[in-house]
Every structure is written in structure tokens, then in C-alpha cells.
Write a structure and sequence with these properties.
This protein has 15 helices and seven strands. The protein has helices at about 15, 25-40, 50-55, 60-75, 90-100, 115-130, 140-145, 150-160, 180-200, 210-220, 230-240, 250-255, 260-270, 280-295, 300-325, and strands spanning about 45-50, 75-80, 85, 135, 165, 175, 335-339. Helix content is about 60%, strand content about 5%. The strands form two sheets. The protein has a four-stranded antiparallel sheet. Helix 9 runs antiparallel to helix 12. It folds into three domains: about 15-105, Winged helix-like DNA-binding domain superfamily/Winged helix DNA-binding domain (Arc Repressor Mutant, subunit A, Orthogonal Bundle), CATH 1.10.10; about 115-175 and about 330-339, Winged helix-like DNA-binding domain superfamily/Winged helix DNA-binding domain (Arc Repressor Mutant, subunit A, Orthogonal Bundle), CATH 1.10.10; about 180-325, Four Helix Bundle (Hemerythrin (Met), subunit A) (Up-down Bundle), CATH 1.20.120.530. The radius of gyration is 23 Å and the shape is globular. It is mostly helical.
């Protein structure tokens, strides 16, 4: 499989730290090390080794190596004789320490939990389902991140809960490809279930939810031509997750969980796909749904929601096709392509 090559300076911090709301594992390690240097916990002259840091953080050496390389490039560390790294005392190091986040803003790395690696694993799988199905190998996942099989199993369980992976007839975990037929099935499910969930949610919607949705949507429409992927994803989450979470029907909510993989995929696609429209077509569709809700026209809101979902199918397939053509991720040992 062809490996992806970052454009621009391949050694830059931006290329290493990734993008999106959840920091990548090496970005979190970088933030912690920076804060320790800034606070004086790691004094000038302190020697750092990949293996020791990886063991302390409960992660593999690869993300630690990336974090240390960024600190070396910034001047905060030196590498005398190739034997580990040493905290420097230079102008660049002092500047790096001043730029470090406060301690309370640094996300911690826990050694006995799935949380530190989950977002990165989820993003890796969802990105690749745009063009193939993948078997997820727990043992390789644990080895890749330097965590226990128990932690790897917890990660896979969470992926299953989110609808991203399922078991085949031999009880092996796999992530199905977002083929046009599969996406159409998911959207058909959404078009049937979400309007019902919306009607059930209306009596329990908090008083501040619709006004907040209106403010956010009006602001998005006012800036529609420059709206980024994160903003689009947030609007979708408000309409299709937060609003419907007040349904109160547990069985229905469990059925809705089956297509959460599609919502997660959209979060990736909004950022990864090239801009296909001058302004996002779902904005006026959301506006119509919200207007009906504000006026108390529940049946009309449910009908507008169904129409919005059916109109969204072709747009979703278009985004997936665009990403599949241009996205060439690196190979990962815990993902084996199927078919």
C-alpha cells in the first residue's frame, strides 16, 4: 500500500501533532514533556530516554520518539552523542518553555485505560473504511501501542459500541468498508428511525437547547463560505446526536447506535474531503427542521428531518469517493485489508 507523505516540512510540529478535536497520542506526550520542562520538573542537563518515558506513560516508543524529535527541533532538547536527549538551556529552550500550556491544560496519559489511544485508533480505522474493509487484530493493536491485551480489548469493545467494528461469522473483529450499498443501508435506517426519535425527544428537550442550536446555525449560515470541517461536524452532532438523545426510548436509542459509525465517518470526511460545495447544502435543511421545531410543528419537523437524510445520501457517497481517490494512509500492523 502506498504510504502518505506530508506536504511541506515533513519534520514540522504541525505534521506530527495531527489535527482535529482530540490530540493524537504523540501530541499529548509532547504537551506533558513541554510542561515539565516549563515548570522546571525537567531541569537543564536532565537526560531523557525513549524507553523510560514510554514505560512511564504506558505507551509505545514511537509516539515518544516523535515528541522528543519535536522538542529537539525547537531547541528545548539536545542529543549529545546520540545517547538519549538532554534538556537544554538556550534561548530557544526558554522560548519553548514559555509557550508550554499550563499544567491543568495538559491531557494526562493513563497506563491502565483505553482512553489515551482510543481517538487515534478510531480515526485510523474510520479513515481507511472509505476504501476498504479491515480486520482488527487485538494482539497487534496491543503490541503497536505498547499496552496490555486488556487495554486493546477495551478499545475494540468501545469501537463495537460505536458501531465501527463488528464480528464476522468466525467471531473476528472487522470494520466494514463504506461502500455505496452499505452507506445507503445506513441512511435508510437513519431516515426511518431518526424522525421517530425526534418526535419522542420533543417533550424532553431542555429549554436552552433550541435557542443554542439557532444561534449556532445562524452563525454558520452567516459564515457559510468559510465554514470548516469541525464546525460542520459540531452542527451535525447537535442535530443528530444531542437533540435525539432526549428520546427516552432505550430500545430505539440502541438501534440508532448501529449507524454511529456513519456519524464518526462524517467527522473525518468533513476534514479530509476536498470542499465539494461553495456552501454546505445541509445548512438550509437544518434551518427548516429547526424552524418547525421552534414553531411547535413536530410532524413537519420530523418530515423535514427525513427529507434531509434522504438528500444527504448522495453527498455522503461523493465525499467518500473523493477521499478514497486521494487518501493513501500508511500501513498499520493491527489492520489487515479484506477483499
Amino acid at each position: 500500500m502506498q504510504k502518505r507523505h506530508d506536504s511541506g516540512n515533513a519534520g514540522s510540529e504541525r505534521a506530527r501533532s495531527g489535527s482535529g478535536a482530540a490530540p493524537r497520542l504523540h501530541a499529548r506526550a509532547l504537551a506533558i514533556l513541554r510542561q515539565r520542562i516549563a515548570s522546571g520538573v525537567l531541569r537543564p542537563g536532565t537526560r531523557l530516554h525513549e524507553s523510560h518515558i514510554a514505560a512511564e506513560f504506558g505507551i509505545s516508543r514511537a509516539p515518544v520518539r516523535q515528541a522528543l524529535a519535536v522538542l529537539e527541533e525547537s531547541g528545548a532538547l539536545t542529543r549529545p552523542g546520540g545517547q538519549g536527549y538532554v534538556v537544554a538551556e538556550t534561548g530557544q529552550a526558554r522560548a519553548a518553555r514559555r509557550a508550554a500550556p499550563p499544567l491543568e491544560q495538559v491531557p494526562l496519559l493513563a497506563t491502565a485505560s483505553w482512553e489515551p489511544i482510543y481517538a487515534e485508533v478510531e480515526a485510523a480505522i474510520v479513515a481507511r473504511t472509505s476504501f476498504a474493509s479491515w480486520r482488527v487484530v487485538e494482539a497487534e493493536l496491543a503490541r503497536h501501542y505498547g499496552v496490555s491485551r486488556t487495554v486493546a480489548r477495551e478499545v475494540v469493545a468501545r469501537l463495537h459500541q460505536r458501531g465501527i467494528v463488528r464480528k464476522d461469522d468466525r467471531s473476528r473483529w472487522y470494520a466494514p468498508a463504506l461502500t455505496p450499498d452499505y452507506v445507503a443501508e445506513l441512511y435508510e435506517l437513519r431516515a426511518v428511525l431518526e424522525p421517530v426519535a425526534l418526535k419522542n425527544s420533543v417533550p424532553s428537550i431542555p429549554a436552552d437547547l433550541l435557542p443554542r442550536m439557532r444561534r449556532n446555525l445562524d452563525d454558520a449560515i452567516a459564515h457559510a463560505e468559510t465554514l470548516g470541517g469541525a464546525s460542520l461536524d459540531a452542527l451535525e452532532a447537535e442535530m443528530h446526536v444531542e437533540l435525539l438523545s432526549h428520546c427516552g426510548n432505550r430500545t430505539l436509542m440502541e438501534a440508532l447506535r448501529l449507524y454511529q459509525s456513519l456519524l464518526v465517518a462524517h467527522s473525518f470526511l468533513y476534514g479530509a474531503a476536498p470542499r465539494l460545495y461553495r456552501t454546505e447544502p445541509f445548512l438550509p435543511e437544518h434551518d427548516a427542521i429547526l424552524a418547525h421545531l421552534e414553531a411547535g410543528r413536530v410532524d413537519e419537523a420530523a418530515a423535514a428531518l427525513e427529507a434531509h437524510l434522504r438528500a444527504s445520501l448522495d453527498r455522503a457517497i461523493g465525499r467518500i469517493d473523493a477521499v478514497a481517490r486521494d487518501f493513501h494512509p500508511e500501513e498499520l500492523p493491527y489492520l489487515k485489508a479484506l477483499g
